[in-house]
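Posted in: Structural Biology > Protein-Ligand Complexes

Title: Requesting predicted complex, zinc ion in pocket

I'd be grateful if someone could produce the 3D structure tokens for the following input. Sequence and ligand are given below.
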Amino acid sequence: MRQSIDRFNYPKNSQNVVKEFHDLLRKGKFRIPICLKCDLKIWPPANVCSNCYSREIRMSKLESRGRLIEHSFSHIDSTKTLGLVEISGIRIIGILSEGNLNPGSAVKLTKCGLDKDNSPYYEFSAA
Ligand SMILES: [Zn+2]
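-- Reply #1 --
Done. Output follows.
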């Protein structure tokens, strides 16, 4: 069994956006860090804005509807369809809970969280 490792390498002194992101995700809440100075959506989540290096960041709820860009099949655990989805300008790889979606299909985020290895997961279905 894999031990729980502090794989996100949390810093100790500043606002910990990455930890906040994962804590919210664990509760099934999907929030995106947005820079207070330049409005950049910081994705993947980071503790510093990659545009202006500000550490003043708020967590914001995004539109849960998006568009499927592409999909493929994974056979790692069980057969799953994985899709690359664009929501409000960010791209997320998630599990598609319906098999008949095609690139361009409207999808919505139906579920998110952390799995047993503390890895984020996202599930999408037809919007
Ligand atoms: Zn910024």
